[in-house]
Specification:
alpha/beta; 4-stranded mixed β-sheet; 11 strands; binds D-xylonic acid; signal; TRAP_DctP_sf; TRAP transporter substrate-binding protein; TRAP_DctP
Length: 336
């Protein structure tokens, strides 16, 4: 009996030794990860998957500590914290980052992508790599492109179903000049504002409307303070999963590989969850009392015609290199 126990203890000891040495290249790390969306948003499915992969790859040594709903501040200040090396990770829309990487503005051009397949083809191909390089030069490493989704307008004033209906509606836009231009050109009174202030501004009627994907509208409960939803699908602004370059450079290659792999696995889970939820969110917003206005293809074309000057004005600001790269990828994706 005694002998058996000794053997068992010795075996357990060996196991422990093996486990320790198997993950010896990983330091114990807790990574701060922030974002603006609620925990109910599929970004959390992505983070959950990331953590599973990290557990398997690092024996649980790398842990993600996620802060939801802007609890740890907005995406732009977080991105600046990454650049300074005082925070590890943020999941952010590209749009508030155009002051850091102007080329990202291409994703703000209205009606650029028609569907998720086109977005994936651009983001997961050479164009995506191009933006990753620009981001890295600016002090942040993009581990993967996740999905926010196609953006749609909501407001509390009146139904918006055609171009003329935008007139005079006070709409919050992201802190981004192309969005500001687009919504001014459509006739709204556009106001740039950080995401964290939107719910209260809608509630107090400081603004009439905002624009975001169905899933974000529902998980951020905007339906509680918004009556009308217009299926405009006017932009697809990707989520970036960023890591501080300063802190990234302090990781060893195994740690970097584990994090990259986790973010890419997370991407699959996050996109799948987001896409599965998109139509459900629309149905649920309807069930919760929102009045939904579909935008006909003809009306969407009229909107596109109206915002064409936004392209003329902003393509030189974004830079033709980035724009052409994305347009070429799109052409390929469309089989042209
Ligand atoms: C969430 C934001 C948000 C974005 C916005 O952190 O600001 O409207 O669409 O979803 O990235």
């Amino acid at each position: 009996m005694f002998k058996r126990r000794t053997i068992a203890a010795a075996a357990a000891g060996l196991g422990l030794l093996w486990a320790t040495s198997a993950f010896a290249q990983f330091a114990d790390r807790t990574i701060k990860f922030t974002n603006g969306v609620d925990e109910a948003h599929p970004v959390s499915a992505g983070v959950k998957r990331m953590q599973e992969v990290l557990n398997a790859k690092t024996g649980g040594k790398i842990k993600i500590n996620a802060f939801w709903g802007g609890a740890a501040g907005g995406d732009l200040p977080a991105t600046q914290a990454l650049r300074a090396g005082t925070q590890e990770m943020v999941c952010t829309s590209t749009s508030p980052l155009v002051g850091i990487v102007k080329e990202l503005g291409v994703f703000d051009l209205p009606f650029l992508f028609a569907n998720e397949k086109e977005a994936d083809a651009v983001l997961d191909g050479p164009a995506g790599q191009y933006f990753n390089k620009k981001l890295e030069e600016a002090g942040v490493v993009n581990l993967a492109y996740w999905e926010n989704g196609f953006r749609n307008l909501t407001n509390s004033k009146h139904p918006v179903a055609k171009v003329e209906d935008f007139d005079g509606v006070k709409v919050r836009v992201m802190q981004n000049n192309i969005f500001l231009d687009t919504f001014k050109t459509l006739g709204t009174n556009a106001v740039p504002m950080a995401f964290g202030e939107v719910f209260t501004a809608l509630e107090t009627k400081t603004i009439d409307g905002q624009e975001n994907p169905f899933v974000t509208i529902e998980t951020s409960k905007f339906n509680e303070v918004q009556k009308y939803l217009s299926v405009t699908r006017h932009a697809y602004t990707p989520f970036l999963v960023l890591y501080s370059k300063k802190l990234w450079d302090q990781l060893n290659p195994q740690e970097q590989a584990a994090l990259r792999e986790a973010a890419v696995e997370g991407q699959k889970a996050q996109r799948a969850a987001n896409r599965a939820l998109n139509e459900k969110s629309l149905a649920s917003l309807r069930a919760k009392g929102m009045q939904v206005n579909d935008i006909s293809a003809a009306e969407q074309r009229r909107m596109f015609e109206k915002v064409k000057p936004v392209y003329d004005k902003n393509v030189p600001v974004i830079g033709p290199e980035a724009v052409n790269l994305v347009l070429d990828s799109l052409k390929k994706a469309r089989g042209g």
